[in-house]
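Worked example 2:
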Amino acid sequence: MLRFPFCLLLSALLFSCAPYRAAWNSGWTEKAANNSIMLVHAHPPTLGWKRLQYQSTLHPEFHEFLVHLGTPDCIAETTHTERHYLILYYLKNRQAYSFRNDTRSVSKPIEVAGPYPISTKEYRLLSDFKHRALGGNE
């Protein structure tokens, strides 16, 4: 007789934890991503992939950019004072795009600049990073 109410209560508690789990996940990924260059790969999902997913849910215009241009090979992310910066690297085209937004107001649109050419040195560094991370299986 107590089984049904207990199961109902347990399932309600588990579902109520989901927003907290999502917030915790975005928090730890943001801390891990700060001041770093990350590989973007969906399977298995890398930190760079998770950060792209988070940013695209936060900023619809960023999501539209990704739909239009596709997934980058690598990203760099940092926060300085009240600005958040994200750089997307597309190795095939040897181009990079820069995004910035105000950390005080999520509702403000994210700003985009680029494309910028990737230097030969950057290209080699990022290509080697991608090759090593994927074990030569691009």
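Residues 18-33 form the longest helix (16 residues). The first strand starts at residue 36 and ends at 39.
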